[in-house]
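Quick illustration for those who missed Monday's session on complexes.
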Amino acid sequence: MTTGWVWHERYGWYDTGRYAGVIPPGGWGEPDIHMENGETKRRLASLVSACGLSDQLHSITPHVASDEELLVVHTGKYLSYLKEQDAQFRGGVADIGIGRTTFSSGDLEIARLAVGGVMDAAGAVARGDVKNAYALTRPPGHHALPDTGLGFCVFANIPLAIHDIRKKYGVERVAVVDWDVHHGNGTQDIFWNDPNVLTISMHQDRLFPKFGLVGERGGAEAEGSCLNIPLPPGSGGGAYRSAFERVVIPALAKFRPEMIVVASGFDSGNFDPNGRMMLNSGDYRWMTEQVLESARQLCDDRVLVVHEGGYSAFYVPFCGLAVIEALSGIKSPADDPCLERLVTNPMLELQPHQTAYIDNAVTTLKCIR
Ligand SMILES: [Zn+2]
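Prediction with zinc ion bound:
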């Protein structure tokens, strides 16, 4: 069986508008482009095509998610607000508080196409049409809440897809592993009281939105269904490997999911302007292989990887390609030109202060049911 692949040219067209990185227009920030722009993901799609790998993947055509599909997680008030914003001449803002989740007029349909893409990929894995799948969708989703967008995320792509496969295919227990540098707060909140969805988030300690602490373990009806592994800035492959071996893999084994979904952000990569971690393409390949091995033992290989953040236009494509190569078992001819130099840095090894963080996270394992 092959690996499913979701990409649509229109994901690259979602236009976050006139911005200076994360600074809104006005004041002294000279207008430039928004940090969340189409280049990182468009360039990953381009690399997957240029190296010939896309020809060997099973292409999945995404659908545009309907109001009915969105309202399974999101409120009617939020959806009405988005429609009003979308109808404005220059577009609007999806997050009501901070104002960084911008879109241009007509882009609401592209956000629906992102939801549809993740749903269609999840369905293909659940049905067994493909062995696993990579959804290269945009805008991202792991910060979005039922009543507002947040952190460049408009809709909760992964939670919506999980609800969909539960309804259509009877998949009950799902684990989400989030290695984006930011806390997967939206996924955590949406499944806070659901004992059948395990959310695991590895992230830079208190970067964004704010929390994601070890003590957040799920609601009263679902204690242990939420597992946070905050790591200190500067963590590299050593810390992530230790966290995987000591927390993520045992947690998955204990929970016994029927499918594993990865919220794959590449902003924990070495060159990212928005995070301070030190992962390279080899680390993302290794983490993907660990998830695949857990899935082989626990859930008939069922894995869905969904693209979240990642803001280095030149490096995200090589990290994403490594993940897709691991999923498909196909090595493309496109090697990461930075890898040889990056792996020689001795600071990638596990440091004592990072071990203390992981020791703390290990304590959450006893809560998992
Ligand atoms: Zn992120």
